[in-house]
Amino acid sequence: MARFQHTVTLAPVPRRLLESCLGTLHDLAEDTRAQDTAAEDTAAGRSRTGPTFTVLARDRRRETAVEVVTEDHGPDHRVRLVCALGVRSAARPREAWLTATLRTGGGKGRNHLDGTARLRLDLGGWWQATGGRRRTAASPLSGTLTHALARATVTAAPQPAPDGRWRVTVRARVRGRSFARPLLAVAALLLRARARRTFAEALDDAAERWNAHVPAWVDAGESGLRATLTDAVRGAHGAGSSGQGCSGAREAHTAGE
Length: 257
What we know:
Largest sheet: 12 strands, antiparallel
Helix content: 25-40%
Shape: globular
Strand content: 35-45%
Number of helices: 4
Structural class: alpha+beta
Order of helices and strands: EHEEEEEEEHEEEHHE
Distance between the termini: 25 Å
Radius of gyration: 20 Å
């Protein structure tokens, strides 16, 4: 098993602003009465389908959840990406979750790219920690990345920085699976320094992008973020709406699925 840890400093997002975005997500789900699919475009034997936007749940007091599916089919490969985002109680947000599943096929070894990611954010715990009112062993943000050859467990714990920003410590534990378990153990010994450097650089790059864009979104306020989120969701609907009713939408996902 390999362990990694790194701390980054992030521009903060006001609680009221984030909760407003989650409320907007519910409003958009309420306004959506169809499962819309964009038309396929075919060129040189290649086609893209979607994205397909589906409302999984829309109960303001319990759970709101949406799913976006994108597929890319070619003569020698298939790629299907399913992303779902949900919030428990849009009226008084307590928890948010995200799942992403990548499935491939059509080429030798391509299924080795397949994997699933799951993230869970305890919103109350996050705000308590960033406000300096909570110091416990539990991390408000946790998740898993599962691959055929490895499984990673990730946690993120914030605390307030002196300048008002967030200092977020990210920890990851990586275990090999199946025949890759002994190989990962050997690689962890031989490449430990390089792996840790790569882990830190990846987080630093992500933090740099966050700090480059998030302050502008915050400055845009609730109306600006609502417009951005609305445009993103409507873009997922595509021009080729099927017009089918979604009264038979699937049951809502749960964070533990």
